[in-house]
Design brief:
seven-stranded mixed beta sheet, 22 strands, alpha/beta, about 400 residues, Purple Acid Phosphatase, chain A, domain 2, 2 domains, 10 helices
């Protein structure tokens, strides 16, 4: 069988104030086209379907439309697990309808229902976090583990599990071993889940530079790849860059997010695994827009912006902005809607040298900071918003 692995859809996400939903729609259509072109049998979606636990109706409609296009008259199976951004109950709300279309949605560790035998791919056996798939004379064991936070683990519906408080690695192993007991011998197996794995790298930004931070044992909610012993393929979600985790003979991959949500995110891809040959390949997605930082002086702004492709979202940093006119900023916003944010970088330093910080109140520090960064006074509304947030933070 051929499995397409994707995840971290984050439907409904925004970059600054720009809603990315239409771009996500085009990307999902591209994934459907890849499935058809590559004759994909199973689509595995590794969590974070939505960007928030209360997605908009438009984001939910987009996801259901995507599922319908994937199943092509029930001739393809779709497997979905919940991520940390997803509300388990909300994600499972369409389970009864999904069951009729070879769609398995796992948002907790309740026993999965029996599925009707329809189409080319059949779900012939189900259990707790487990399905067995059949295509002609081929079979595949699949373990499905939704985002395993401590609270979700301890509220699971599996009885008599030997959980230990404050031992996350052990508890995940216990759950996976319980799921693995349902695997039938001598057929290929895969796990679909959403978590941090030791040996992976997380991209971050420090001092305006993209850096790699390795996930290591001891990090909160991180587990060793040893938990996936004797598994042919592991389809992971949670980290937004495509990467393989080296461990034994298992093929362990993060597919990454389907669009770049942050400027330092890597090229979006999907992974295709062939269970018969046990081979993998990554295919780049062409639909997502790029995110780019453009840094220039005031007299270079429009020349620089004209060089950037229209399908690029821009963080614009303007240097030496002591005398920049508001009309320039207005012109940028009107003519370049793909500019997400404008950062005015002044050569002036914060005017606190002659005044000790301890002598200033919060309002005065913020005003001085804002003036140094933008060469303008903060508006009354902005100042009040900032002070309210500080007050709320102090209360909490």
């Amino acid at each position: 069988m051929k499995v397409l692995h994707t995840g971290d859809l984050h439907l409904g996400a925004k970059s600054e104030s720009v809603l990315r939903l239409e771009e996500q729609r085009q990307t999902l259509l591209e994934i459907c086209e890849i499935c058809d072109k590559e004759s994909i049998d199973v689509v595995a979606i590794a969590g974070d379907i939505f960007h928030t636990s209360t997605p908009s109706a438009e984001a939910e409609d987009l996801f259901y439309d995507f599922l319908e296009k994937l199943t092509i008259n029930n001739n393809r199976a779709v497997l979905v697990v919940a991520g940390n951004h997803d509300d388990p109950k909300r994600l499972a709300a369409c389970l009864s309808l999904a069951k009729k279309h070879n769609i398995v949605i796992v948002s907790d560790l309740s026993p999965l229902p029996q599925y009707p035998v329809v189409g080319n791919i059949n779900i012939v056996k189900t259990g707790i976090g487990y399905v067995k798939l059949k295509k002609e004379n081929e079979y595949l064991n699949v373990g499905l583990l939704p985002y395993p936070s401590e609270s979700r683990l301890f509220s699971s519906n599996i009885n008599n599990l030997n959980f230990e408080k404050n031992n996350y690695q052990h508890n995940i192993e216990v759950i996976l071993d319980e799921i693995r007991k349902q695997f039938e011998p001598n057929i290929p197996s895969m796990f679909l889940t959403h978590l941090y794995l030791v040996g992976a790298h997380e991209l971050t930004s420090e001092n305006n530079k993209t850096t790699k931070r390795m996930v290591k044992l001891g990090d909160a909610m991180a587990v060793s790849p040893t938990i996936f012993k004797d598994c042919n393929y592991v389809a992971l979600g949670h980290l937004h860059s495509t990467q393989q985790i080296k461990y034994s003979n298992s093929k362990i991959f993060y597919a990454g997010s389907i669009i770049k949500l942050r400027i330092y995110d890597s090229q979006p891809n999907v992974i295709i695994w062939n269970s018969t040959t046990n081979t993998c390949k990554a295919l780049p997605l062409k639909a997502p827009w790029d995110l780019k930082e453009v840094c220039c002086n005031e007299n270079q702004i429009f020349d620089q912006l004209e060089k950037i492709p229209k399908n690029t979202l821009i963080y614009l940093k303007i240097k030496n902005t002591e005398n920049i006119k508001n009309s320039i900023i207005t012109q940028i916003k009107q003519n370049y809607p793909n500019v997400l944010n404008i950062i005015l970088e002044s050569t002036q330093t914060l005017n606190l040298k002659t005044r000790k910080i301890k002598d200033l109140n919060t309002r005065e520090i913020f005003i001085e900071f804002y003036k140094a960064k933008t060469n303008n006074e903060p508006t009354k509304a902005l100042l009040e918003t900032f002070l309210n947030l500080v007050e709320e933070s102090n209360e909490s």
